[in-house]
Amino acid sequence: MTKTAIIAASENMFSRFTETCNGINETTMFEKPGPKWSVAENIRHLVISTNMTSLAYTLPKFMVKWIGGTPNRQSRSYGELKEKYYKKLSEGGRASGRFVPKPIEVSYGKQKLVDSWNASTAKYLAALSAKRTEEDLDNYLARHPLLGRITLRELCYFTIFHTEHHLQTIEAITQTQ
Hints:
Blueprint: H1 3-22, H2 26-30, H3 39-58, H4 61-68, H5 78-90, H6 110-131, H7 136-139, E1 141-144, E2 148-151, H8 152-176
Antiparallel strand pairs: 1-2
Helix pairs in contact: 1-6, 1-8, 3-6, 3-8, 5-8
């Protein structure tokens, strides 16, 4: 995917996610379905993840290079990276550390949570649009806790299908409640 296509796919996925969240009532949003994350915790996880991802596009290039390095390979395709991610999940890979959301009480408020999601995606899209060229996406690496070092293009792909993954999780939660 080109940078333009990545931005369009991201905007589409973020919009679908927001629309779904806006359609969920406050009680369902914060209700915990057993040991799994609530809808609110899924959203908070994506906010944390998207904010961390934004760093790869907002930090100066020399910092991104210092932290992640430069690749000695071409970027994987969207499908290849998605396949690797789901393989890691099937092998027991899970969010850890700072990426695990703390429990959220209903008093936090649905709108505040959705607003924080929208702010994190707007920041991500603005940084990607303004601060990274098409070539930059293939010339710098970022560290991913589950996928290892991935190119900035691959990080864009991850952001799209990671959002889709949690959208599907949220849809499954709301269908059973």
